Amino acid sequence: MRVSAIKANQPTKNNIIKLFRQFGFEQMFSRSDIISITGLGSSAASELANKMKRFGLTEPVSGLGKGKYRFVRISK
Fold it and tell me: In the chain, what is the straight-line distance between the N-terminal and C-terminal CA atoms, in Å?
């Protein structure tokens, strides 16, 4: 995953890297996980989750309740 290609500020990129190191492509995560790993507040964690979806880095996981995400492999 190439976070350097994303148009975001450095703290956002750093938080995305923290999450990816923790969950990789295989594990799913929630907003609560984002809060605990990054130290962000509830609103900021939601905004980060939305940014990652907009950037195409994550996708929602269906069938396990609302608000579960996982990283997707980005093809070149």
Answer: 10
CA distance 38 to 36: 6
Strand order in the sheet with 58-60: 29-30, 68-71, 58-60
Q: How many CA atoms lie within 13 A of 46 on its CB side?
A: 3
Q: Where are the alpha helices (DSSP H) in the chain?
A: 10-23, 31-38, 42-54
β-strand pairing of 68-71 with 29-30: antiparallel
* pLDDT tens, residue by residue, 12-67: 999 999 999 999 998 999 999 999 999 999 999 999 999 999 999 999 888 877 78
Query: Which of 50, 18, 38 is CA-nearest to residue 59?
Result: 50
